[in-house]
Amino acid sequence: MSEYLIPAIISYLIGSIPFSLLTAKYLGGIDIRNYGSGNTGATNVFRTLGKKAGAVAFLGDFLKGFIVAIIVRNLIGIDVAVICSFFAILGHCYPVFLGFKGGKGVATGAGTVFALYPIVGLILVFIFILIVSFSRIVSLASISAAVLFPILSYFMNTHKYFLVFSIFIGLFVVYRHKANIRRLISGNESKISFKSTK
Hints:
Elements: H1 2-15, H2 19-28, H3 42-49, H4 51-75, H5 78-93, H6 106-116, H7 118-135, H8 138-155, H9 160-176, H10 178-186
């Protein structure tokens, strides 16, 4: 049992590190929870503080998922890596350090996918960028990638544990965007601007 439990707990704690919150604090001198959507994710940092801070926040959230997944995969195996990946994403979304109020799991989830199946990650990133480029709506791109994640994993014949992971994470990310879905339906979802020079 400890073969799964201890790595999962460590992964959750790593996932709980609030890189977006720390980035906003040190680069912008603000508590990102009091700005924009109030979400402690890279998109809110980007909207509030600009490209540089947004990129740093995204990289931090991405790397905590990537590092967890790739280390566990290489040391233990993909079955445990998939479990730890889920807990890293769970930590990002429900961080113990922030009263269990975190981001939506996209950046950290992307990190785990790139560590375990980089080709799947590249295809999803291409789809994400394409949708953002045309719509300028990050949530729409995130939801679309989440829906396509298990479909792509199935057709690329990924490991059975990874396929189950893709289904759970796809549904989980969509669930985390439920407020965005309501705004998309009503036509009130925010769009990002690429003209920021910050």
